[in-house]
Queue: 3 jobs
Job 1
Amino acid sequence: MPKGIPNKRYTPELKQMAVEAVVKEGLSYNEDARIYGIDGHDRIQSWERIYLTEGPEGLALERRGRGSTGRPKKLPKDVEEDLLAEV
């Protein structure tokens, strides 16, 4: 992808309309991508998988990037003392 061009973001409503057109009307992925202006039919395939497993509300979740692991969990006080005693 060329530099300086932001990624396209699709609304959950558009995703749901596109997937329902494939499921209910029997459109092919390529036809559906052309009608709704979506880059690539593989995107619709992944939305369809999410729609069928999690329902329409699953399309609203942000799934890009790696999830945050956050800070490491602190050990309970007694476990920490035992480890320090061993060392």
Job 2
Amino acid sequence: MSISATAVRFDEHTMWVDLTDGRTVGVPIAWFPRLLRATPAQRQRFELSRTGLHWEEIDEDISIAGLLAGRGDVTKQPEHAV
């Protein structure tokens, strides 16, 4: 069974994603710097796909598999101690 998003909404600190299996997942907006910097109007202009969420205007893509695995923005290189 493939799980996909049916709705997305935001509050002050959290992105809430409703899933086809009946769950709702909440993740901190801070996990996704582009969403954090986006205006409320920009956050509302998203597209749902079979595998994730897409915001064309801010160039953000979030997979449902990544959300369920607890992963935030993976485009940033991890910092290493010197």
Job 3
Amino acid sequence: MNQVIISENEELVMKLLHYFISLRGYNPIMIRGVQNEIWLENLNEDYKIIRIVSDYIHNDEQFKTDLFKTKVLMKDIKKKTLSFKMNALSIFVNLGDNVNIDEFNENNIRFADLKSEEDLNKYQFIEASFPDIKQNMTFKEKGLELFMKLTKDINEKNEGDMKMSEDVFRIKKPVVTYALIAINILVFILSFVFNLMNDFAVNRYFITHGEPYRLITGIFLHAGVIHLLFNMYALYIIGMQLESFLGKSKFLAVYLLSGLAGSMLSIFMSPGFSVGASGAIFGLLGSLLYFGYHYRVYLDTVIKSQIIPLIVINLLLGFFISGIDIWAHIGGLIGGLLATMAVGVKYKSTTFEKINGWILYLIFIIFLSYMVFFGI
């Protein structure tokens, strides 16, 4: 039987992958045209990008070429992740002796030349961001046994991530979406019998004079059949997907919080009457943006080619077509983003992010409330 020989470089690469993927939550990302290097991403870490480069780089000119390529690819990743700043750590495991990485200074890219895990002692900036890396690079297993263990751990981590993604994207029955559509239709019918517009529509005067419930009731009223049908169709299309992604309770919370934010900005900017679910629906679009950001591996193309153009077109129409409450749309969009940040995205959001989401949402609502009730 032929004996499998694993080189020191291969073993080092596997140990690094095991640490960053299994213990630090980095995910491999596919970079078209890249060979002999692995790119890992985790937007919650100091270094959002980790590059593990096994290609042999034998002189400074070749290193400069590698650096230029890295900058170009990072710009593309920044666009996809909507990141203003992105730090990267490039780890070279096969760097030639003629290359002096100390001569290269980049604000957002750090370099490390590792021939073994002991070389980590030379880089304090790595230990500062990953204080447990050295202790998790030592294993009792050796050779093929170590390779099999590390591979098994990494595969288990990836399988776990896959199961979580399947859970999120599994189609569920949109019960809340159907219920909201039914309530809107029922309210529309009742409005003809009981003239609900006068008593429940969004209006600054009545809201500031003891009727704050209008902030919510107004989002269930519609001015006509076309208005109702257009909004219910949009709610059906968007709600079916988003409710499945977020879950029933979170979806309902985002819908109502978005509607509230839309109503608040509407009465802040306009004293007239306003009705309709469009503010809440724009909130669902904002929610899709936030959700898509966390699951961009699956939804990046859809977000860029469908969701963002849909939002932009509808906002522009609101500025040029009379009778559309553009401020309710903008308020709902902002509210939807912040509300989704507050309730969290399954398997992705941290407690810190959710707390910040609630703080930002409440600041937005409290500011508008102050300006409406106590402002000049």
